[in-house]
From TrEMBL:
The lineage of its organism: Bacteria, Bacillati, Bacillota, Clostridia, Eubacteriales. SMART domains: AAA. Residues 287-473 form the AAA+ ATPase domain. It comes from the Bacteria. SUPFAM superfamilies: DNA primase core, P-loop containing nucleoside triphosphate hydrolases, Zinc beta-ribbon. GO terms for molecular function: DNA binding; zinc ion binding. Pfam families: AAA_25 (PF13481), TubC_N (PF18563). This is AAA+ ATPase domain-containing protein.
Length: 665
């Protein structure tokens, strides 16, 4: 048997001859059935194989050898006196102080473990002994006292730290051998890890820190300054390092965080300096925020956006709340993203008509790299940010917003829309510019204006200001700009403008509300339907008895829906529900006669009632209806009743149908 093979077998437990080799308990894991096979190779080296999967390196480390020790040594080296002599031992004890095993260091800086045989001798390897941390009894007491635990890589380092009066521990078998169960002994402790100055040492430190994460009260990894390659804390102390310096380094070190983990950014509001809201156009377009400009296709949104761009480029004043232009400002740059209009045939001619300084207006049309180009979306924040850095604009226009969301973003899903808008808002805040996003209106009949735009409600939620452009109810050549949302100030008054062949013209302040703009029929078909519905109601009012059948083709499902939406807008702020409650309690056949009995002013001249109702109906002017409520409340209530009767097929309701009257109204 060669000296090399004899050296390996002497360090193993349960060695038995097995064929041409030997079997033994693997020292690298808790082996209850011999799983390690040892044999001699043809070149004289020792072959080891663990059937449980332990690597050759792990097996060698567990018995205090290196892989190179499996190869035969030159005779002269084998005969060196004392090269394998044990010169230091480190006792590992359980929590009660009972000796479990020793780590032995030899003169040639090799390590191996051995355990008591119960007869005053030793057995190499750990066998079934469960490994623990070094100086475990002392560590437990120190953690209970709240002392900081220093964790170097080796037992010699621990002993040197203990001599300084510090609490220290380590794991057996060197770098990379930390087990998660060791961290249980350090729950609630403040831990400082001291890695050796080499790659295995740094990896070991990260392994220990990761294992301690969620268990230790705090974790710091301190890389000691001035260490030589493969140096450790013992080298640092030998070079003049002191306890005080070590404690200072530990105190100044940052808390360890897992790689890739995010941590909260917490700001104490006492440290925040209050600032006033900065405006590009007060109170319509704030700087550093998102503003949405919405309206139906073709209503003039792009015309208005280009007019605003022209004003910014020239430094001209915006219209004021009192109709008087505000003071001039410094001319500024504009970045325009346009997906629907051509630069040469639309944007440039309109900017020229608006008198823009086109040297200050920049179109962001795409991006280009070394080998390819691409179109712009709001997902390409790095490209947009580079443009903002170069141009330094006061205004960024995205026209229209939905065209720049990106192909993979569903505009109806809040969880997809919000991150895109948040990225744009962050850029606007960082570069102190206003982001004006143009959006089309949807077909929704929602009552509130902020719900009428296409896509998720998160569009409206993310914007600090929402502006609506619509056609003037009484002038088809005039447009009105109204504000439906302002999160930073009181809403601005409406402003009218006209689009003519020779350009864009402001027309002063307007009393047209957002609700009135949304009530304007959006097509000739819708306008015709409204007129027909109003005529049907007028005809019903004119008769002595309620019509039992609606005119053929008038009360279509679409018309019912339209009337329901208009009726709700007209009477939602009136007290008509009180009247319906009274009707439900004292109803009797002949609803029209009953209504005239309880509301004599229904007999007022029909022509006057018809005129007032028709005007309010077409303009959807809630405020106007409220002003006339004292005189015409009964007429509006009767109109509601007639609509309810018509909605139920034109028949007079019976007592059995009373609940549906309350529910439907």
């Amino acid at each position: 048997m060669s000296p090399t093979l004899r050296n390996v077998l002497s360090r193993l437990e349960g060695v038995k001859r097995c064929g041409s080799g030997w079997q033994a308990f693997c020292p690298s894991h808790d082996d209850r059935k011999p799983s390690l096979h040892v044999s001699k190779g043809g070149d004289g080296r020792v072959l080891v194989h663990c059937h449980a999967g332990c690597s050759v390196n792990d097996v060698c480390t567990a018995i205090g050898l290196e892989v190179k020790d499996l190869y035969p040594e030159p005779e002269r080296k084998r005969n060196q006196a004392g090269s394998g002599e044990v010169i230091a031992t480190y006792d590992y004890k359980d929590a009660n102080g009972k000796l479990l095993f020793q780590v032995c260091r030899t003169a040639d800086k090799r390590f191996f473990q051995r355990r008591p045989d119960g007869k005053g001798g030793w057995i190499n390897g750990l066998g079934n002994v469960k490994p623990v941390l070094y100086r475990l009894p002392e560590l437990i007491q120190a953690v209970q006292r709240g002392e900081t635990a220093f964790i170097p890589e080796g037992e010699k380092d621990v002993e040197n730290l203990v001599r300084l009066g510090l609490t220290a521990t380590t794991s057996p078998m060197g770098a990379g051998k930390w087990r998660d169960c060791y961290s249980d002994w350090l729950k609630g402790a403040n831990c400082v890890i001291l890695p050796d100055n080499d790659e295995p040492g740094r990896k070991h430190a990260q392994q220990v820190a990761q294992s301690l994460h969620g268990k230790a009260a705090s974790i710091k990894v301190v890389e000691l300054p001035g260490l030589p390659e493969k140096g450790d804390v013992s080298n640092w102390l030998a070079a003049g390092g002191t306890k005080e310096e070590l404690l200072k380094l530990a105190a100044e070190a940052a808390e360890w965080e897992p790689a890739g983990k995010t941590k909260p950014v917490i700001v104490r509001l006492a440290e925040v300096e209050p600032e006033e809201v900065a405006w590009l156009w007060e109170p319509y377009i704030p700087l550093g925020k998102l503003t949405i400009l919405e309206g139906d296709p073709g209503v003039g949104k792009t015309w208005l956006a280009l007019q605003l761009a022209a004003i910014v480029s020239r430094g001209d004043p915006f219209p004021g709340l009192d109709g008087v232009p505000r003071e001039r400002r410094e001319p500024a740059n504009v970045v325009y993203l346009s997906a629907e209009d051509g630069l040469a045939d639309t944007l440039r001619p309109r900017l020229d008509k608006a008198g823009a300084d086109v040297n200050r207006v920049y179109a962001l049309t795409g991006w280009e790299g070394k080998s390819k180009t691409g179109s712009i979306t709001l997902l390409a924040l790095d490209v947009i940010e580079t443009a903002l850095q170069q141009v330094k604009p006061a205004l960024v226009v995205v026209d229209p917003l939905q065209a720049y969301l990106g192909a993979g973003v569903d505009m109806h899903r809040a969880n997809e829309v919000r991150p895109v808008l948040a990225g744009l808002a962050a850029l606007a805040e960082r570069y102190k510019c206003a982001a004006l996003c143009i959006r089309h209106l949807g077909k929704s009949q929602q009552d509130r204006a902020i719900y009428r735009g296409l896509g998720s409600i998160d569009f409206a939620a993310a914007a600090r200001s929402i502006l609506l452009v619509g056609q003037h109810p009484d002038d088809e050549h005039r447009r009105v700009l109204a504000q439906s949302k302002n999160s930073l100030a009181a809403k601005g008054v409406s402003i009218a403008f006209e689009l003519r062949e020779d350009g864009f013209f402001w027309c002063g302040l307007s009393d047209i509300t957002v609700e009135a703009l949304l009530a304007v029929p959006r097509s000739e078909e819708e306008k015709s339907a409204v007129d027909e519905a109003a005529g049907f109601l007028r005809e019903a009012l004119a008769g002595d008895k309620l019509r039992l059948e609606a005119p053929a083709g008038v009360l279509t499902p679409e018309l019912k829906e339209l009337l329901a939406a208009h009726k709700q807008e007209l009477v939602c702020q009136l007290t008509w529900t009180t009247m319906l409650d009274r009707a439900n309690k004292s109803y009797k056949p002949g609803a029209l006669q009953w209504a005239r009995t309880h509301f004599p002013d229904l007999e007022n001249p029909l022509r006057e009632a018809e005129s007032r109702f028709e005007k309010a109906y077409h303009r959807q002017d809630i405020e106007g209806v409220q002003q006339a409520a004292a005189t015409w409340e009964a007429t509006i209530k009767r109109t509601c009743l007639l609509y309810e009767f018509a909605s139920n097929g034109g028949s007079v309701l019976s007592k059995a149908e009373k609940p549906s009257l309350r529910k439907s109204c």
